[in-house]
């Protein structure tokens, strides 16, 4: 390709190259197409654009600032590290950006209930928040095991007024919560909407969630230009399903001089079974209604994946990431649990910013490469969320 031209992705059928699409029963295809039509219609209207822009400003607190981590950069002795502070958003992470978009769309379509699953409770809290604001009933399915582990998020969801459905079947974790939420959705998909929590699932969700999140990179690109009169040499973000990363990357895809790096969790090591490095070690396959890179066992089942950051342990990944990997436009690297923990502590102690364990993966990659670069080079890290939710776990683990 002589010129980068990614803006029109995906095509009308929801494909990014060979990835994406709608691998779902015909009845559901019609419903997904209706969601796509409604989205394409309202996204053009000034009414919707203004409403979302106003909420981003007055409710989420956008634009989020970019902070120069100068002490950290100096200690590393190489490139300058900058942080896009999505951790400062209302509810403490990037997820609120797409949850607001999805809740507004649901309301516009006259849906009577928003349904979703949640693992660690991050998507559940962001969605319950958006639904409270927009005034639409919300039902979150969560594994009983996770409910016991994630007490603060469970309490928040209850306070925010969503209906929390404990799931006790199977292993009572995320996978079972997905099945349970999806069954509820299938009872009335015309009137309900399933709010997917990342750039995954059948078309149009990878596109819609990306569009709602792309505010991150749009702001960052402009902020960088204004302050430095140039773009960063590197931009980086952690990749679970891939929504904060697509949010950061989209505005920079056509900037050839900007190196783009997605960071996956290699958990306890790529040589073990306990990682979640889908783009690094997976193969093209199918999961949750789309084609993408997938980590599978020998029998073709999704692999039970692991990461110290529960928001990153997904055996699939967004179809656009799969495509960008094949094109070579984005480079995908991985970081272990141990490197993640070190980055978590380093950022806390050198800059006074406690990052989410998910975001600490991107910080860890920056810490790894900064010393190999020149002092006038710039790395922009998407700090997708804050680490309050992880503080007790890390303190326990390190015996603090
Ligand atoms: C959920 C979450 C992620 C992972 O989701 P993506 O869709 O890959 O962005 C990353 N960071 C934080 C703080 C999260 O809550």
TrEMBL record:
Pathway: Amino-acid biosynthesis; L-tryptophan biosynthesis; L-tryptophan from chorismate: step 5/5. Belongs to the TrpB family. The beta subunit is responsible for the synthesis of L-tryptophan from indole and L-serine. It comes from Oceanospirillum sediminis. It catalyses: (1S,2R)-1-C-(indol-3-yl)glycerol 3-phosphate + L-serine = D-glyceraldehyde 3-phosphate + L-tryptophan + H2O. This is Tryptophan synthase beta chain. Residues 61-385 form the Tryptophan synthase beta chain-like PALP domain. GO terms for molecular function: tryptophan synthase activity. CDD domains: Trp-synth_B. Tetramer of two alpha and two beta chains. The keyword Repeat does not apply. The modification N6-(pyridoxal phosphate)lysine is found at residue 95. Gene3D superfamilies: 3.40.50.1100. Keywords: Amino-acid biosynthesis, Aromatic amino acid biosynthesis, Lyase, Pyridoxal phosphate, Tryptophan biosynthesis. Its cofactor is pyridoxal 5'-phosphate.
